[in-house]
Amino acid sequence: MELNDLAAFVSVARAGGFRDAARQGGVSASSLSIAVRRLEAKLGLRLLNRTTRSVAPTEAGLRLIEKLTPLFGEMEAALDVLNVFRDKPAGTLKLNVPSSAARIVLPAIIAAFLKAYPDIRVEVVVEDGFVDVLSIGCDAGIRYDERLEQDMVAIPIGPRVQRFATAAAPDYLDLRGRPVHPRELLSHACLRGQFAGGATPIWFFERDGEVLQLNPSGPLLVRPGAAIDLATSAAIAGVGVIHLFEDMLRPHLDSGALEPILEPWWQRFSGPFLYYPGRRHLPAPLRAFVDFVKALNDAG
């Protein structure tokens, strides 16, 4: 059994398609397709269900991935031991992060890290839903404390205190009025977000120990990620009220394109954490990144 064929199958299954796997691995999609078909022919089993839009493992494929994942992990760890003979660590660091971290946290860290470790390649997978970072082939993730797994090591990364900000365009507020209490938003056009699973995040407000939860309606509903830019643009255009990370809205608040409202009610919350498996041996790229983040925390 060709090891490369097994690796090709795992990469395609993890990426959810031949094109994405080829792009991530720097190979051609046709070579991956040939490798997977050759593996299926040798095994006499179909491992992937293919449609024109997606690729997903069969039950047999899922069982094979389950057995192969720890084996490939052990192989990577064995090769990573060689990093001690290098002047600087090398390899790939794969991070799973929410879109908010990709916009707020990583820009201030990744550039400096890559300059300090030019032989390390960083792959960033943006995923707003909660996932098992190990099962999808990532080394570490960034999440907030309420979504951390108990058996993971977690260290602070990025700003330690954040706020959700509420804002709208001055023209919109001139027309619809400026709310002085969060409940007034129930009669406003609110621009909402939605998780991949379909849940719509509640808007939280807090003042003097009083916490309010609102589920307002509005003309626009977007999934996180790049679609957040669409919601922000709609708010700037005067379509409605937006409720988002203050760091994301700050440039527009400072420019006057958006006007802050209900600021005394903006809820504060603790910043995100970098989390990774609590095993003794960490791959060299991950160890370098952990040490880099810890140094930033000590300096800050």
Mean pLDDT: 88
Q: Please trace the helix and strand order, writing H or E for each element.
A: HHHEEHEHHEEEEHEEEEHEHEEEH
Mind describing the biggest β-sheet? 6 strands, mixed
Instruction: Indicate the CATH architecture of the largest domain.
Output: 3-Layer(aba) Sandwich
Radius of gyration: 23 Å
What is the CATH C level class of the largest domain, in words?
Answer: Alpha Beta
Keywords: DNA-binding, Transcription, Transcription regulation
InterPro entries: LysR-type_TF_proteobact-type (IPR058163), LysR_HTH_N (IPR000847), LysR_subst-bd (IPR005119), WH-like_DNA-bd_sf (IPR036388), WH_DNA-bd_sf (IPR036390)
Family: Belongs to the LysR transcriptional regulatory family.
Protein name: LysR family transcriptional regulator
Description:
There is one protein chain. The chain is 38% helix and 23% strand. The protein is built from 10 helices and 15 strands. A hairpin with a 2-residue loop joins strand 9 and strand 10. Helix 1 (3-15) packs across helix 2 (18-25) and helix 2 (18-25) packs across helix 3. The strands form 4 sheets. Strands 7, 8, 11, 12, 13 and 14 form a 6-stranded mixed sheet that branches. By secondary structure, the chain is α/β, with parallel strands linked by helices. Residues 1-58 form the HTH lysR-type domain. This is LysR family transcriptional regulator. Pfam families: HTH_1, LysR_substrate.
